[in-house]
Amino acid sequence: MSAPTPFDALTPQPADVLLSLIALYRDDPRPKKLDLGVGVYRDDTGATPVMRAVKAAEGRLLETQGSKSYLGPEGDIRYTELLQPIVFGFGRAMPADTMVGVQTPGGTGALRLAAELVNAAQKNAKRPGAKVWLGTPTWPNHAPIMTSAGLTVATYRYYDQATQTILFDEMMSALKGADAGDVVLLHGCCHNPVGADLDQAQWRAVAEVVAERGLIPLIDLAYQGLGDGLEEDAAGARLVLDAAPDALVAYSCDKNFGLYRERVGALYAKGGTPARTALMRSNILLLARVNWSMPPDHGGALVRVILDDAGLTAEWRAELDAMRTRINQVRQALAAGDAWLAPLGHQRGMFSLLPLSPEQVGLLRRDHAVYMVGNGRANLAGLTLATVPQFIDALRAVR
Ligand code: LMR
């Protein structure tokens, strides 16, 4: 028997709702099971292959990499330089003295770093309790990342699941009531979990209120290229980034380069003045150092090798185009297959939030071997044109 220790005071935590689906699905012996759970892309054989451009880059890296010595808290500088125009736009030069880019462990690392930077700034500015605004529903990790970094989360309703509509008026009135210096977290594209993105007029209106109220946008851009195209998917976010003097982008290459477990992300911070940007940069580097010292290298190095080579970049873009086309074909087949699913045809990215109860999601799993998140989120990339009818039948059986 061991005497009580502080660890006895820990409270049990539930398993992560998304990640626990991986094991549940894997352990189901039924041959016709469907995995619409965690957000990974699948091809029309149900596989999540390593992209060809990534394989080729791995070969080159194996041949040419001469050292695995430390790089520094900013990670691979060339990686963030090459990625920057994809995020902010080619030909839209960002002055180097008002822009910071660092490599992070996935988009999650970028969000964490952004949250800690804001918290450090707000503590020094004596603004305790300054808020980060989240539209609900949102990725279940958003609020815990923000609160565990010391920020206060405020929410507004972004989406009505029953009617499959964006509640834009509610969003605007929340943002109009936000205080200067509050952070507003926005999904850049392919909203996770609802799949419904703002249109350009709505983005423009958000950009205006962000500028008027002095809000700090934090754009979570984790699915660029999987909606309508690389440029199209960043267009709305760029309106907001242009409108705000200070802005943050948490970027992930995990999906659009298929690098999931390699954890490849970046945090970009735009500052209104060179002096402020220098402060942001030194604090970001310190926070990276205390969190992970430096990011894992391999995945960022692969993205760098691809983006530094015109041929590999073209191959990557073609593969990304094919992924997007396949997802959108599945969306169109679902929308055409059942009037109840018609809204899915206008949504983008891998996810939709179907108007299903947790009980119905449970029945889908128990009786039809369909694995989805309990709130009704479906990763449509887990379907193929061949399995769409099976999914529609299962939905009809539980509705
Ligand atoms: C998802 O939402 O399924 C993905 O972003 C995976 C994750 O880390 O939650």
From TrEMBL:
Start and end residues of each Aminotransferase class I/classII large domain: 32-395
Drop me one GO molecular function for this one: identical protein binding
For the keyword Transferase, the answer is yes
Q: Which GO terms describe its biological process?
A: L-phenylalanine biosynthetic process from chorismate via phenylpyruvate
**Cofactor(s) needed by this chain:** pyridoxal 5'-phosphate
The UniProt entry's GO CC annotations, sorted and at most eight, read: cytosol
Q: Which domain of life is it from?
A: Bacteria
- Keyword NAD among UniProt keywords: no
Keywords carried by this UniProt record: Aminotransferase, Pyridoxal phosphate, Transferase
Q: One Pfam match, by short name?
A: Aminotran_1_2
InterPro entries named in the record = Aminotransferase_I/II_large, Asp_trans, PyrdxlP-dep_Trfase, PyrdxlP-dep_Trfase_major, PyrdxlP-dep_Trfase_small
Entries under PANTHER family matching the protein = ASPARTATE AMINOTRANSFERASE, ASPARTATE AMINOTRANSFERASE, MITOCHONDRIAL
Query: What does the sequence similarity comment in the record state about its family?
Result: Belongs to the class-I pyridoxal-phosphate-dependent aminotransferase family.
Kindly state the subunit structure of this protein. Homodimer.
Name the chain's protein: Aromatic-amino-acid transaminase
Which organism encodes this protein?
Nitrospirillum amazonense
* Native organism taxonomy: Bacteria, Pseudomonadati, Pseudomonadota, Alphaproteobacteria, Rhodospirillales
